[in-house]
């Protein structure tokens, strides 16, 4: 269960949103600039200086952020995984070493097994020895996903993670990811502006518009409402 | 040619550069990582950065005078150091090293801060969320990704120490074999109207500087880190 109440500024952009996500998958849906990335970063523990007084994040009854008390748990201590829009792979490390980066606590053999398992999950086993500049955008996104999953996070934040993948590859990866998330009890928040991603991933959708919650509920219902609103604007 | 002064200068510059890199790497990383994570200690960061930059604008003679007083027998600190080492730091090679490290600190810190700050922040964010400590981020990301700035920092610190005059004169005086560096030698030669010797000494200092700068600029022309290629065919979004 993820509960949050956030009030933050990014330049002239003001995000004020609260939510209570109980479903395994929740989709943050909205146009570019609606505040999806800002929200994900605040949930991950970044940009704490953007919070104004009101900032509270509780995950599974664990207080992660409390703006009034000046508390903000460091991103690495939240058991959170994140894949940003840009994969941000470490350019001097191979794909395998990138995936292994968050596994420092494991011994060498366990780390190697985990890396292999994660690369297999994202269909990137053959990329293990390659460096980021040898990967395509889609391959880099898959490796970044494997890197985020490897330390077994309890909360997974995905910011347009499949934008460089073609439709079939994206669907396949989403199916595998859903299976893995379900088997490992991970709560996942997926930010997207792609309706098909939102429909195929989400049990619940939070629709964001200009930094505010415009709707929240079952994916089909929220997206149908949004579609109707957009159509009426065209007429 | 006074080879004793030449080798003393090289020794001073080498020791100073080694100490400076050892000090400046963690200091620069602390400054850059503190800024990147919007640390609560922003005031401290600014104060430390200003302090590390101070020798850049402070007249060398002023710095040399302060150090002379601080390390001399008039202060408890100076007396303590003298008791510890068995000799006062002022007017000794060790004292010159202390003065050179402080005086050349900005020349090592500034290039390293610039190099570390150029490491893209999404990489630091990725490392942070994967649980990397500041020390691990420094060793595994900042140092390998900003390695070009080490050459710049090392060369600038080395050359600045080689050419240092004010601090050396105030703190070390002119003791052959102990504190007489090449710059002091040059000053003595000019003062004695031995222009021929001064020309040779100057030419050596000039060649050293040109060679070192050529090394920096030659290395700067090397290949740069590449970005991932392209998005996959048929990709729908922004890559």
Walkthrough of the structure:
The complex is a heterodimer of chains A (235) and B (239). Chain A has helices at residues 36-44, 95-100, 108-121, 137-149, 167-184, 195-201, 219-234; strands at 2-10, 13-21, 25-29, 51-59, 62-66, 71-72, 80-83, 155-159, 187-192, 204-209, 212-218. In chain A, α3 (108-121) packs across α4. With 235 residues, chain A is α/β, with parallel strands linked by helices. The termini of chain A are far apart. The mean pLDDT of chain A is 89. Chain A folds into two domains: 2-79 and 153-234, P-loop containing nucleotide triphosphate hydrolases (Rossmann fold); 91-150, no CATH class. Chain A is built from seven helices and eleven strands. Chain B is built from eleven helices and no strands. Chain B is mostly helical and 239 residues long. The model of chain B has no long low-confidence stretch (mean pLDDT 87). Chain B starts with a helix and ends in a 19-residue tail after the last helix. The radius of gyration of chain B is 22 Å and the shape is globular. Classes of the chains: A alpha/beta (235), B mainly alpha (239). The interface between A and B is large, with 50 and 32 residues.
